[in-house]
Design brief:
The structure holds two protein chains of two kinds.
Chain A: E1 5-11, H1 17-23, H2 29-35, E2 36-40, H3 49-54, E3 60-66, E4 69-71, H4 72-84, E5 85-91, H5 93-97, H6 109-119, E6 134-137, E7 140-143, E8 147-152, H7 154-157, E9 162-164, H8 171-187, H9 255-258, H10 276-287, H11 299-306, H12 312-316
Parallel strand pairs in A: 1-2, 1-3, 3-5, 5-9
Antiparallel strand pairs in A: 4-8, 6-7
Chain B: H1 6-16, E1 23-28, H2 32-41, E2 50-55, H3 63-71, E3 76-81, H4 92-109, E4 117-121, H5 127-144
The chains are: A alpha/beta, B alpha/beta.
Chain lengths: ~325, ~150
């Protein structure tokens, strides 16, 4: 047992799906177990933070961190894990780009508390008691982590070695990572360069088998996925369903389009792109109802056409808002004049 | 831009006195850049708060450029291209007008005043239109005030 490597897995602001994804590798987990001891995995078994804090620095070989940085506890554990681990892996879309919890960046702490602890129908909280970081009771002081205004990605708070996007990362991609780790431990094979994203470098369309119009692509109008019965063979975007595939990194095997559902972008942008949403916005705007009578259209008509996109942030940044260029919403001061 | 009460006006003036907006203007090579050039050689008076970036076509303005400008605290972005049916590349400006319309919706959802982003068609002969656009756009930006990204908000 002594020569086994040590691994840790932790969840920040996530749903637990990433933890389950690691178990999804099925019998292969025994291969992992043959070379590794799990020293810290709160969702898997009992383990206390102070035990982790007492471990020597760099004594853990690999730490998988899933979930975004939503509060001070997420950040603290990320920093402790970074100190204790040789390799830090940003595991899953939330750790890499903020993921679904990252959409909370359209609001802030005050508004979140207002909704959660006051406005919801099922809440009875007349004094509007909200979580405090510290409260004194007769038995002593009770503390809670500080809830942040802005959701951050893991690489904003600690140095990250590898990124594994996906919601959750697929079994195949986990096997690529575990395989590289096994080879490294058993045969001394070199690890991929730091910063590698464990997925494809191409876009999802490259992996998707649907037939698509290559030249002169244009769509008449936008449909929500429930509004039409999508042809299972043709490109979803060609059919008017917003599929984020053209702006999204491949590697997942196009599993959503295979199931006749549009890609929502959980793999994040490709390396060439700084802003996932901007990239998709550009692609969609380029094909929406361009006809021969274009020069007769007024700017108002164009606006009406684009208003079919009901929720631009929710559509284009469903998983990547905290990793986008603007990161979160802002507030304008009052306009003059 | 309805007129404010005299009292409020003087107050606002005191606040915004030293605000010099930073404006980025993307001009297409074939029409708008020549239009801007004409405005310059014709010595038309314009506020000096803008920087022109020449691109081959207004459709070369990736939404990322605009978002990056706002991220860096720019107060306003103007995209200028050829009039519809005049694009040197036939349909570039048709893409541009869709992108800018959608981008205006997007930046509004991000909390920005959508008027911080404007699209104008300016031909090579329209030096005067360039000047008028710059005067009115600068005025609009001055009214909106400094970017919420710039003030460390």
């Amino acid at each position: 047992m002594a020569d086994k490597i040590k691994i840790a897995q932790y969840w920040g602001a996530g749903c637990g799906g990433c933890d389950v994804a690691l178990l999804d590798i099925d019998a292969k987990i025994l291969d992992l177990h043959a070379i590794a001891d799990v020293v810290f995995w709160p969702i898997g078994f009992d383990g206390k933070l102070h035990e982790l804090e007492q471990m020597p620095d760099k004594s853990i070989t690999v730490a998988f961190y899933n979930g975004a940085i939503r509060n001070s506890e997420n950040e603290h554990v990320a920093k402790v894990l970074r100190e204790k681990s040789v390799i830090m892996i940003s595991f899953g879309s939330c750790a890499c780009f903020g993921g679904t919890p990252g959409l909370a960046n359209v609001t802030n702490k005050e508004e979140v508390f207002q909704t959660v602890y006051k406005d919801t129908e099922s809440t009875d909280n007349p004094d509007f008691v909200t979580p405090q970081t510290s409260v004194m009771v007769p038995e002593g002081e009770l503390t809670l982590p500080e809830f942040y205004d802005t959701v951050k990605t893991l690489d904003e708070v600690v140095d990250v070695d590898y990124f594994m996007p996906g919601c959750p990362p697929t079994v195949d991609l986990i096997m690529v990572a575990v395989g590289a780790l096994l080879k490294h431990v058993k045969e001394g094979a070199p690890l991929p360069p730091k910063g590698t994203v464990i997925a494809s470098d191409k876009t999802l369309c490259d992996e998707c088998d649907r037939e698509r119009v290559e030249k002169g692509k244009t769509i008449d109008r936008i449909y929500q996925a429930y509004e039409i019965k999508a042809d299972p063979k043709k490109c979803l975007l060609d059919q008017g369903i917003i599929c984020i595939g053209p702006a999204t990194r491949a590697g997942c095997g196009a599993m959503c389009p295979v199931a006749n559902m549009p890609c929502r972008g959980c793999m994040g942008p490709t390396k060439a792109v700084m802003d996932h949403g901007g990239s998709m916005l550009s692609a969609l705007a380029s094909i929406l109802n361009i006809t021969d009578s274009e020069s007769k259209l007024s700017e108002e008509q164009i606006m009406e056409l684009m208003m079919q996109v009901k929720d631009p942030i929710g559509t284009f940044y469903a998983f990547t808002l905290p990793k986008s260029l603007l990161k979160r919403t802002v507030k304008e001061r009052k306009r003059k004049g | 831009m309805s007129s404010a009460t005299p009292n409020a006006q003087s107050q606002e003036k005191a606040e915004g006195d030293d605000f010099e907006p930073k404006i980025i203007v993307f001009c297409c090579n074939w029409c708008s850049y020549a239009g801007a050039d004409l405005a310059g050689v014709s010595r038309l008076q314009m506020p000096p708060h803008f920087r022109v970036i020449r691109v081959m076509c207004s459709a070369r303005v990736d939404p990322e450029f605009v978002l990056r400008a706002f991220q860096k605290g720019v107060d306003g972005v103007l995209v200028a291209g050829c009039h519809p049916a005049d694009c040197h590349y036939i349909g570039g400006n048709y893409r541009t007008r869709r992108r800018i319309a959608l981008l205006r919706m997007l930046i509004q959802q991000f909390g920005f005043d959508p008027d911080r982003l404007r699209l104008e068609w300016i031909s090579a002969g329209e030096g005067e239109k360039f000047q008028k656009t710059m005067v009115s756009f600068t005025k609009t930006i001055e009214e909106i005030g400094p970017s919420p990204m710039g003030g460390g908000d």
